[in-house]
């Protein structure tokens, strides 16, 4: 897992709320490759960005957009995957292993929940980070230390009822605890410049760090 956002040079833009500020917008500004889900292409170009590739079923693209981006358009009509999955599969095919996701939240909450679940699944194949307007999501498969600021809000989610966890450096510490419910590790707070999550077994957890309030 990579926590330094400046090292993510490939960015997937999903068709949620377009980044207007903060780390999500900065990722786009310094990206070397922008992989755009087809439904987000008009938002992307309206904000002055050009895609490296446009991926999706193309059902939501206007004809003029399809003609404009025809040379970098990668249609995928498969019905078992949504456009974010298709963009991630494109990255795997192109061997782009370190990928940031933006535009995954906003507009529809069910899409956002689905996108988080997709991120957990594909983090087995790619090094992924999801950056929203309000914070950052990472997926862990092993114990890790993450950077933070004192008072930064942290939430930890796991669906694995057989995975004991230990938290160090958080306001509400946990020792070899197994969570029965998805919400039990949420609404914690960092005490210093870093915190550590120990995973006493195999599984996956989703970690959210809210943007610090300066």
Strand order of the largest sheet: 4-3-2-1-5-6-7-14-9-12
Distance between the termini: 26 Å
Helicity level: 10-25%
Task: Count the domains.
Answer: 2
Q: What labels would you give this structure?
A:
214 residues, alpha/beta, 2 domains, 4-stranded antiparallel β-sheet, 29% strand, elongated
Molecular structure report:
With 214 residues, this protein is an alpha/beta fold. The chain has 2 domains: 5-134, Thiamin pyrophosphokinase, catalytic domain (Rossmann fold), CATH 3.40.50.10240; 141-210, Jelly Rolls, CATH 2.60.120. Helices cover 21% and strands 29% of the residues. It has helices at residues 22-30, 41-46, 63-68, 83-93, 109-122, and strands at 10-13, 33-37, 53-56, 73-75, 98-102, 127-131, 135-140, 144-147, 153-157, 165-168, 174-177, 188-189, 194-199, 205-210. A 10-stranded mixed β-sheet has the order 4-3-2-1-5-6-7-14-9-12, sandwiched between helices. Strands 8-13-10-11 form a 4-stranded antiparallel β-sheet, with no helix packed on it. It is elongated.
Strand and helix map with partners:
Blueprint (H helix, E strand, L loop, with lengths): L9 E4 L8 H9 L2 E5 L3 H6 L6 E4 L6 H6 L4 E3 L7 H11 L4 E5 L6 H14 L4 E5 L3 E6 L3 E4 L5 E5 L7 E4 L5 E4 L10 E2 L4 E6 L5 E6 L4
Parallel strand pairs: 1-2, 1-5, 2-3, 3-4, 5-6
Antiparallel strand pairs: 6-7, 7-14, 8-13, 9-12, 9-14, 10-11, 10-13
